[in-house]
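Please decode residue identities from the backbone states below.
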């Protein structure tokens, strides 16, 4: 039976493929189909593993001294959870019903139980979900000690259609390799439109829908799934007629994309002759291929943190320098804006365990992290400076998440320290590298003088500016409906920044997702924006908007729009731009 679910559309396009169910990153287990004759053995395997853990827990308790009453209490709690019929006993039922392997059944069941704990009002009980996970991890370890007799599933069919990843949640580092792994798209239970996972999906041009709530429990391995990443619709097990309709729509989209390609070499100029720079956002050096494909005016944002993720050791100075050089070399004559590490919040390094912070987006992130890790910062700055000689005058350094004057001063001092070291070592670098700051915290947008006095360019990060102004986590689907780029406060902060920055003689760009959404192109032009930076896949669509715009007409209309407070009136005015 076909099944339709609606979620948050985060990356356009249609993808069709076989469901590939992925478990919690921590408890990565394969889904296997058990032959009917092995089902009983699989149930016994799980029961044996649980018994083994029960025995282990008893041993821990017995070895605990009288003074270790906490150990005793925790063992009691874990034993209680292990014996809860909702966990192992229900997982055994699942093995029989779905003919799946024990590991899979257990993790499925664990996720249901975890969800119940998450919904509890009492914060102590809510935190007990971590204990459930620990118990399950113990059982999984015990299971691995008894190798499974289940043969791995053949996946011949996947070669022909490709697969669609179905997960509860995915991290940006999970998604970055999807393209090379023949993954056509992904769908998740949680997540928001401007989470970094969604940004990676867009930059890879992989259709994706997030915030589907129960897709992980609804879809089954190898179900055919259609993702309509433009409308936020996911269809599980479609019939032939629906499949045909979506195949047709996918070809139409491809045709539209082909038509847009004709604009590749057209200069991005408005009807009244204003030249507008359209630059690209990249995550990895290899992304320059798509930057060249659309003939972008350089790189407006290189999110270097992606080079640091998914690896056991951090890239050293030479490796980083080589990567930055390669980007500059690939784009001769074009500016390349390299942002210093923006680690933290939903992006973390494998080399350090994620800090448990109640509000990671408000924690040690981006420049705060770099200033707290001076050696790591210095290494990156030295690598950037050394790379600048490939194309003198083209490399620009961008600092994320600045709010305070002292953070700007400390960043500039770090750059000076790196320069002094290189001079001493006789290593050449471009002496006049422009240093810019991201305007993505409301405090920065409201006190722009601090920035214009100290820096050479500004780049507005609308993703974080919206998150921090409206106090909503950009990665949390529960508040996704409150993420509104058209909130009057957001519009005023952006317009104010463009105006004040331009008046101070600094180039101002927007590199957040708003810059790549053609629905906002005319609005931003009317605010006076002349530098846009977006994922390369969006450049031609935005160019199409630029070509049919007259900035003088737009400026007058946008002035009026900025005075409006009522959301409906703002949307109406936007449509009439
Ligand atoms: C932004 O915040 O708008 C931005 C461009 O930076 P990131 O999305 O990497 O936080
Ligand atoms: Mg940001």
């Amino acid at each position: 039976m076909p099944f339709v679910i609606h979620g948050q559309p985060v990356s356009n396009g249609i993808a069709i493929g076989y469901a590939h169910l992925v478990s919690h990153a921590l408890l990565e287990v394969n889904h296997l189909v058990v032959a009917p004759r092995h089902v009983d053995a699989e149930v016994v395997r799980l029961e044996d593993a649980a018994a083994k853990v029960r025995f282990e827990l008893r041993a821990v308790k017995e070895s605990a001294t009288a003074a270790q009453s906490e150990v005793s209490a925790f063992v009691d709690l874990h034993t209680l959870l292990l014996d809860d019929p909702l966990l192992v006993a229900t997982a055994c039922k699942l093995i029989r019903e779905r003919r799946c392997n024990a590991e899979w059944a257990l993790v499925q069941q664990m996720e249901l139980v975890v969800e119940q704990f998450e919904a509890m009002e009492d914060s102590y009980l809510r935190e007990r979900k971590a204990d459930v996970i620990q118990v399950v991890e113990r059982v999984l370890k015990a299971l691995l000690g008894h190798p499974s007799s289940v043969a791995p599933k053949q996946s011949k069919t996947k070669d022909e259609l490709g697969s669609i990843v179905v997960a509860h949640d995915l991290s940006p580092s999970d998604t970055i390799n999807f393209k090379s792994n023949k993954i056509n798209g992904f769908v998740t239970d949680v997540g928001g439109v401007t989470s970094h996972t969604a940004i990676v999906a867009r930059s890879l041009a992989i259709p994706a829908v997030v915030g589907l709530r129960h897709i992980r429990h609804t879809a089954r391995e190898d179900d055919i799934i259609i993702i309509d990443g433009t409308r936020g619709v996911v269809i599980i097990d479609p019939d032939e007629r629906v499949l045909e309709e979506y195949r047709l729509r996918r070809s139409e989209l491809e045709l539209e994309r082909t038509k847009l390609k004709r604009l590749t070499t057209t200069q991005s100029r408005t009807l009244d002759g204003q030249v507008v720079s359209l630059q690209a956002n990249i995550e990895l050096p290899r992304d320059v291929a798509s930057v060249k494909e659309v003939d972008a005016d350089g790189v407006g944002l290189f999110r270097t943190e992606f080079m640091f993720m998914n690896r056991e050791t951090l890239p050293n100075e030479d490796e980083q320098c080589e990567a930055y050089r390669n980007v500059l070399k690939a784009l001769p004559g074009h500016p390349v804006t390299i942002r210093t590490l923006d680690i933290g919040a939903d992006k973390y390094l494998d080399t350090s365990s994620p800090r448990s912070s109640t509000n990671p987006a408000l924690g040690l992130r981006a420049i705060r992290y770099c200033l707290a890790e001076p050696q790591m910062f210095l290494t990156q700055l030295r690598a950037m400076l050394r790379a600048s000689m490939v194309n003198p005058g083209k490399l620009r350094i961008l600092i994320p998440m600045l709010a305070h004057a002292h953070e700007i001063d400390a960043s500039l001092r770090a750059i000076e320290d790196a320069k002094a070291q290189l001079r001493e070592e006789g290593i050449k670098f471009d002496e006049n590298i422009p240093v810019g700051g991201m305007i993505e915290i409301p405090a920065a947008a409201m006190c722009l003088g601090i920035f214009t006095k100290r820096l050479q360019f500004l780049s507005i990060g609308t993703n974080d500016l919206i998150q921090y102004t409206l106090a909503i986590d950009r990665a949390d689907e529960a508040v996704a409906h409150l993420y509104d780029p058209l909130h009057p406060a957001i519009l005023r902060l952006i317009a104010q920044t463009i105006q004040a920055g331009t008046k101070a003689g600094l180039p101002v760009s927007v590199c957040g997702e708003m810059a790549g959404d053609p629905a906002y192109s005319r609005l931003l032009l009317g605010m006076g924006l002349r530098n846009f930076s977006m994922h390369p896949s969006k450049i031609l669509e935005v160019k199409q908007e630029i070509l049919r715009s007259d900035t003088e007409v737009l400026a007058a209309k946008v002035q009026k729009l900025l005075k409006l407070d009522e959301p409906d009136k703002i949307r109406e005015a936007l449509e009439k731009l």
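Observation: The first helix runs from residue 39 to 63.
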